[in-house]
Write a structure and sequence with these properties.
Blueprint (H helix, E strand, L loop, with lengths): L3 E2 L1 H7 L5 E5 L6 H7 L1 E2 L3 E2 L24 H10 L7 E5 L8 H11 L4 E4 L2 H7 L4 E2 L20 E2 L1 H9 L4 E4 L3 H5 L16 E2 L15 H12 L6 E4 L6 H10 L6 E3 L2 H5 L10
Parallel strand pairs: 1-6, 2-4, 2-5, 5-6, 8-12, 9-10, 9-11, 11-12
Antiparallel strand pairs: 3-7
């Protein structure tokens, strides 16, 4: 099952009884936006509460650390998700808001039938999918808890070590102005991890906001990464939008790279060397 689902295929399965739809729109008004209008049957998943365990000290794990597996299992049970569920996730930022992060966490938890809706909420509205308001009602489930996340991650020490050994390629998916240190709208220090290369996540998309075709994505990444170490580590500001590039690489049929969860939000607060260019 490809990790991206087009609106045409989604329309053909949207009324299947075994399908679970997750609304992963993020931001301060996300839940209110969900209550006002969402794809009929969709269940709201909160970036700050369900997809991260936010602490007051971002120097230890960044702004969006992964939750404990037990806590995430509790969230999944409350959402009515089991190991064999078929899940489609959407947001309103072409997958980069929280849908890709949700996909990564579900897949890393061991749930294989999970996809992100290409172009998200906007394409669903444009296609005339039935919408609803208020809360949805569904039954809770029980779910098996894995011993560890099933997709690779990297911590700050590993990133530093592998870069010093020149044995990994670290990709920063933030906008170029943030990478270069021109300005930083969220974290306290601008710049980038020394040795990291910048491939903004927007390069995964067409000018219309849909994902590039898998073969084009693969060709583009192979060209850029030629002569770079094969081991890949992906990061962003806080470990959320990095999942967009991991999703794109999975869609392209490439090996799934490691996610540096702490990302720039951890690195820039930890006394590490910072580069600007």
């Amino acid at each position: 099952m490809k990790p991206i689902i087009a609106i045409e295929e989604f329309q053909s399965i949207v009324n299947q009884g075994n399908l679970i739809i997750l609304d992963a729109r993020a931001g301060k008004d996300a839940h209110q936006n969900y209550l006002e209008k969402h794809i009929k049957g969709a269940r709201f998943v909160d970036l700050e509460k369900d997809l991260a365990t936010v602490s007051s000290d971002a120097s230890k794990g960044g702004r969006h650390p992964l939750p404990d597996l037990f806590d995430f299992a509790k969230t999944l049970s409350e959402l009515g998700i089991s190991e064999n569920s078929r899940i489609v996730i959407y947001d309103d930022k072409n997958g980069a808001n929280a849908a890709a992060r949700c996909w990564w966490m579900l897949y890393a938890f061991g749930i294989e039938k999970v996809q992100v809706l290409d172009s998200g909420f906007q394409i669903a509205e444009k296609a005339g999918l039935e919408m609803n308001s208020g809360l949805e009602h569904f039954h809770q489930t029980t779910i098996r808890i894995p011993e560890k996340w099933q997709l690779p991650t990297a911590d700050i020490d590993e990133v530093e070590h592998l870069l010093s050994e020149k044995s990994a390629t670290v990709i920063d998916v933030r906008d170029a102005y943030r990478y270069s240190g021109e300005s930083e709208p969220i974290d306290p220090i601008a710049g980038h991890i020394p040795g990291a290369i910048n491939i903004p996540l927007t390069e995964n998309l067409t000018e219309n906001g849909t994902f590039l075709q898998p073969e084009i994505l693969k060709e583009n990444y192979q060209k850029i990464l030629n002569n770079h170490p094969e081991k890949l580590i992906i990061h962003c500001g806080s470990g959320v939008t990095a999942c967009h590039t991991i999703l794109a690489m999975a869609y392209a049929g490439m090996e799934i790279p490691a996610l540096y969860v702490g990302s720039w939000s951890e690195w820039c607060r930890s006394g590490q060397e910072i580069a600007k260019n």
